[in-house]
Amino acid sequence: MRAAAYLRQSVDHSEGIERQRTRTLKLIEARGWDLAAEFTDNDISASKERGPHTGWGRMLDGIGRDFEVVVAVDLDRLLRSTRDLNVLIELGARVVTVDGEIDLTTADGEFRATMLAAIARFEVRRKSERQKRANEQRAAKGQYLGRHRPFGFEKDGRTPRPEECEAIRDGYRAYLAGMSLSSIARDWNARGLRTGQDGEWERTAVRAVLRNPRYVGRVRYRGQIIVDSEGVPVKAAWPAVVDEDTWEAAQAIMAGATGRKPRGRHLLTGVALCGVCGAPVQSGGNARRGVRGYRCSAALGHFARMAEPVEDFVDRVVAARLGQPDAASLIHADDASPELREQAEALRARRDGLGVALADGLLTPAQVKIATDRLNSQIAALERQLADAGRARALGDLVGAPEAYLALPADRRRHIIDLLMEVRLLPPGRGTRTFRPESVQIAWR
């Protein structure tokens, strides 16, 4: 008889696996069987699904072909659900445990195994329910529930790491100012920062950070922000990294409420418009090799001109405007964010209540759809206002500092240009060899 030893434990502990190996090998030797294979699952729970690449999955694949009997220390090491037991029965596996709890070689053993597996499953469910209640209580008190170290904090989830918190604040400011998630990831990697799991930064990881309510001092549990009996978000046990307006503005942009214009490699791509037809400006179209240019994106192509003189002119206009005494009025919005957030929350509550009204028969599906569309439109409008307010505050450090604007990368300058003005490019004129400022129309927003 060929036998396979199956060794498993839920936590990473090599000594426990070694003790299981010693006991199973003694049983195999006492029965006079040949050891054909050994399968190990260290740090893997038996109450969760075990895929084909685990020791369990490889063991199932070898039953009846590479060996005839499976040996484990006891039932809990092998399985903790009737589902897994049924899989072994359907495969015709013969299973024996060192403690004699299960022996599928007999009908009586199969019956006893089924009962024991059901009891194990009951214990798992009861433990899970207790853990869930405990976590809900901890979340309601604003405590940290995660297992991994969150970026910006120590492993306790409460003590800030100043360097990482500053990077997070810079990340929010950069994103609200128009930088891409990939650019922020490159910046964090260049600073030598690592994720909470000690990995390199990618755009998806940066997005997860900027979406996380922990950085505004809110507690999230099972995908929901925890609120008290009055619907107010529970105050977290750790300090907020950014203010609510900044966080809400970032969420509105990532949720697609405000939208973003297509980005290009050049400063005015997707931002400037054709002064003849109003079509967006694209890069390219210059007849001279190696010289960058802009052109009208419409089929008729109303102009094609050199890029650098236009970009230099627009940059100098923006820098001069930011240096004016009243520049703050251009980029600072009225601080009506608390009222806007309250209005948005009220509209969301009304939208959520439509489902109850439909279930109670107070509204028809058609009425619910009409009301939902109207509320979604109103919510989107409020989110756009919140996003604009957050972006305006994020640009406040440029007031009175035109040199700071000129030192910014192109993607951030592009966003500021789009925020402050509408740029329209006209044909430079036949035979014109010098830049004419009147060929660039600027309308301040």
Overview of the molecule:
This protein has 445 residues and is α/β, with parallel strands linked by helices. The protein folds into three domains: 2-122, Rossmann fold (3-Layer(aba) Sandwich), CATH 3.40.50.1390; 162-242, Hect, E3 ligase catalytic domain fold (Alpha-Beta Complex), CATH 3.90.1750.20; 255-445, no CATH class. Helices cover 47% and strands 11% of the residues. The chain has 15 helices and twelve strands. It has helices at residues 14-31, 55-62, 75-78, 82-90, 107-140, 162-176, 181-190, 203-211, 244-254, 307-322, 328-331, 337-359, 365-394, 402-406, 410-420, and strands at 2-9, 34-42, 69-72, 94-97, 220-221, 224-225, 273-274, 281-283, 293-296, 304-306, 421-425, 440-444. The strands form four sheets. It has a four-stranded parallel sheet, with helices on both faces. The radius of gyration is 32 Å and the shape is elongated. The mean pLDDT is 81.
Compile the SSE list and pairings.
Blueprint: E1 2-9, H1 14-31, E2 34-42, H2 55-62, E3 69-72, H3 75-78, H4 82-90, E4 94-97, H5 107-140, H6 162-176, H7 181-190, H8 203-211, E5 220-221, E6 224-225, H9 244-254, E7 273-274, E8 281-283, E9 293-296, E10 304-306, H10 307-322, H11 328-331, H12 337-359, H13 365-394, H14 402-406, H15 410-420, E11 421-425, E12 440-444
Parallel strand pairs: 1-2, 1-3, 3-4, 7-11
Antiparallel strand pairs: 5-6, 8-9, 9-10, 11-12
Helix pairs in contact: 6-9, 6-13, 7-8, 9-13, 12-13
